[in-house]
């Protein structure tokens, strides 16, 4: 098997600072975790909040702490630091090679999508962002790592795209259409969703948008791990 | 401009754990840093050392600490923890958007390569790994971020490839040949160097090998940040 991960991330229009923070961390017992946070409001303050949450979470994950416990700890730390006045969404997607599973932790009103081949399942059970109460806990889904599995998660910039013009994005339909027509790579899927959203906002994203796609495919080729990053600079 | 980063990483033959650790961290004042460490010996002990060093460094970088200071701190922490008995190499390559520069910090006997178009410069000034003395400091190169700049860094698995059979790899020549013949993408460059090394080891790498390539190209297209990861699972 091979796990392929793709990220596409854009800032709110005319904003040099994104309130979204995304980091990838290696798990000490094998595998890796993608951690995505979106701090309340936008600009520098939101960035500081989402960076603080992501740093807390990846620090704990790197020590071997379980995903759910790391999310709770980040929530409590944010609550303590900001007196419950600032919220932050958090998604963790982990490839756990110890258990052979993909673990999704969600503290985000925005749903995550779990797809088996072209069967799309929208997971939108109510879920609270971090930092607003004492007893925050994540919604957790644990899935067998097997070829054909695709998961998609994102920040609310995607959900809100087009709302300004009364044309909100139907994310589920967009995913379904892509998966039915072709066998898109994770990067094609992430790019396509992001482009769709930016177009609905007439090329000027009303919020930061980050999209993460993970796909499990049959293994072809060597055992080399690869990573590519593209960072445009203004 | 756009900065493109590629990583190719393979474990020592028949070893499930790599002594090399690589992580990417966002810099709080803009840009990102790639941190690569190789712990002494191989297997689980080496992994623990390189993870400890990388965690220390990225934690400090995320707080805004300068690269050189982070490397010194990691060296002192390792020295204290292991009584000076365990060494670890460290390379940091930072895209610093505050200064508009690419900053290379090296605590590694293996050289780094700095290329302007097809002009290859091998930087091999003597440089000590972390953790073996109290006064360890990194060799630092600061380069203007401009199209045509390519930097290549790697762990010593690449340098040692083929030595077992008396056919050591000539990394400089391999890079020169690739850059003269074509305009390779960073991933092509990284993959090609890794493949060359693995072939010299007859398909059974004698050590963990990690190769990082950063390239600055003229900017084409949108302002979307992208990342792709491929993780083969046995």
Query: What would the average pLDDT of chain A be, to the nearest integer?
Result: 93
Instruction: Tell me the strand order in the biggest sheet of chain A.
Output: 1-10-9-6-7
Listing every helix as H and every strand as E from the N terminus to the C terminus, the arrangement of chain A reads EEEHHEEEEEEHHHEE
Main sheet overview of chain A: 5 strands, antiparallel
Which pair of chains has the greatest number of interface residues, and how are they split between the two chains? A-B, 49 and 49 residues
Low-pLDDT windows of residues of chain A: none
Strand proportion of chain A: 25-35%
CA-CA gap between termini of chain A: 38 Å
Helical content of chain A, roughly? Answer: 25-40%
Computed CA radius of gyration of chain A, to the nearest angstrom: 17 Å
Which structural class matches the secondary elements of chain A? alpha+beta
Shape of chain A: globular
List how many beta strands of chain A DSSP finds. Answer: 11
| Total of helices of chain A | 5
Oligomerization category of the chains in this entry: homodimer
């Amino acid at each position: 098997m091979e796990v392929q991960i793709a990220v596409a991330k854009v800032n709110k229009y005319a904003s040099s600072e994104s309130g979204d923070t995304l980091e990838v961390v290696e798990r000490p017992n094998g595998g890796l975790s993608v951690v995505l946070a979106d701090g309340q409001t936008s600009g520098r303050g939101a960035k500081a909040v989402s960076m603080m949450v992501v740093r807390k979470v990846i620090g704990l994950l790197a020590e071997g702490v379980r995903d759910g416990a790391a999310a709770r700890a980040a929530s409590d730390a944010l609550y303590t630091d900001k007196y419950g006045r600032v919220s932050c969404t958090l998604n963790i997607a982990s490839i756990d090679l110890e258990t052979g599973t993909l673990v999704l932790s969600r503290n985000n009103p925005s749903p995550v999508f779990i797809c088996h081949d072209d069967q799309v399942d929208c997971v939108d059970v109510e879920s609270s962002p971090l930092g607003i109460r004492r007893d925050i806990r994540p919604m957790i889904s644990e899935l067998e790592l097997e070829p054909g599995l695709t998961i998609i998660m994102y920040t609310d910039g995607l959900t809100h795209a087009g709302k300004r013009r009364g044309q909100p994005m139907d994310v589920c339909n967009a995913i379904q259409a892509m998966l039915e027509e072709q066998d898109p790579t994770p990067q094609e899927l992430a790019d396509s969703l992001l482009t769709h959203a930016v177009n609905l906002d007439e090329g000027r994203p009303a919020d930061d948008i980050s999209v993460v796609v993970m796909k499990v495919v049959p293994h072809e080729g060597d055992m080399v791990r690869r990573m590519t990053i593209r960072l445009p600079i203004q």
